Amino acid sequence: MPIVKYPRATEPLWHEWDRKAQKCGLRHTVYAVNGDRYTGEWLDNLKHGKGTQVWKRTRAIYSGDWKFGKRDGYGAYSTLDPVTKEYKKVYTGWWKNDKKCGYGVTFYPGGERYEGEWSDGLRNGWGRMYYWDGSIYEGQWLEDQPGGQGMLQLPNKNRYEGGWKDGKKHGPGKFFYLDKGQLFEGTWAAGIPKCGILIDFGRVEAPAPTQYPIPKV
Hints:
Elements: H1 13-21, E1 25-31, E2 37-43, E3 46-54, E4 61-67, E5 70-80, E6 87-96, E7 99-107, E8 113-119, E9 122-130, E10 136-142, E11 145-153, E12 159-165, E13 168-177, E14 182-189, E15 192-200
Antiparallel strand pairs: 1-2, 2-3, 3-4, 4-5, 5-6, 6-7, 7-8, 8-9, 9-10, 10-11, 11-12, 12-13, 13-14, 14-15
């Protein structure tokens, strides 16, 4: 009786190469096809743990926590200054699902800076913003703009305390004209005062008070 021999199936070589290529644990620098490089920890072939990513095209750097291939946890993002050729921090703080989330500090061009809470990559919650002209806003934020209750201090120390909506004064509020020694208390709508009362406030200590005091009603 003849014996039939069946060819033994051999596993393709790429299966073995693929298993060896699956990254898990701490690895040295791994380069992507586009030139980006990552040095750090992996899990199931995804960036996971502590690591540093360098993007070739923008020369930006992220160093911090990763979770299943995305920035998640605490980390710092920096970009290369084209003039000084030095790295400058853009954001330092918490991330979730590759977006700013939680408390963090962002440095903007022109010297502006935000310190506060983030959600889904936008300023949300309580935070403080330092503007290029010397103004400071401290209060609530909603979808990347002042929204809720907050205080805006101008370079001359005059300030507004009250409600905000879509980045503008909105609702009941007080505006302290400390340079003139006056206080306006009223209601705003879309940044415009609609009605209110103007009284003297600290007129004696004001550096540039009005010529005559406001008569009492």
